[in-house]
Amino acid sequence: MPASKPAKITYDCSKCPGYCCSYPRIEVKDSDLARLARHFGLSAAEAEKRFTRRYRDEDSDERILRHRKDEIYGSICRFFDTDARRCTVYAARPAVCRQYPNGSKCGYYDFLRFERRHQDDPDFIPSA
Predict the structure, then answer these.
(1) What are the boundaries of each domain within the chain?
(2) pTM score, two decimals?
(3) Of 29, 57, 59, 63, which one has the greatest count of Cβ atoms within 10 A?
(4) Based on C-alpha coordinates, what's the Rg of the chain?
């Protein structure tokens, strides 16, 4: 009998306040930049200038999305609607956003499960 594949975990992102969008480094590859440029009717160079910045440290040199202020997380992706708590460029979002959580753990749901268990309340919603 062949080994069965583990079931892919799915998450209801509509109930999340944008946890993954608050990650400080949302990498933008060339193909992502081209998609964003098309979405906004810009050249790739103009999209890069308006929407990204460089992140450099001893191990990395990446182009990442710019952030803006957010009341919940402090800062969040510049394309995140902080009132509706939704992505404003969903169809043009970077590949890393398209892949997340990719069947892996979701930090928000892990945090939510932890808090609900420790509060002994299955409906508890933690505030940031």
Answers:
(1) 13-119
(2) 0.74
(3) 63
(4) 17
Instruction: Give the pLDDT of the chain (128 residues) as one tens digit per residue.
Output: 556 655 555 666 777 788 889 989 999 999 999 999 999 999 999 999 999 999 999 988 999 999 999 988 899 999 999 999 899 999 999 999 888 766 666 667 777 777 788 888 877 766 65
**Cβ atoms of residues 87 and 19 within 8 Å:** no
The helix (run of H) or strand (run of E) holding residue 63 is strand 61-65
Distance CA 31, CA 6 (A): 31
**3-class SS string, 6-57:** CCCCCCCHHHCCCCHHHCCCCECCHHHHHHHHHHHCCCHHHHHHHHEEEEEC
Distance of CA 78 to CAs 64, 101, 104, 109, Å?
Answer: 11, 20, 25, 23
Amino acid found at 8:
K
3-state secondary structure of 99: helix
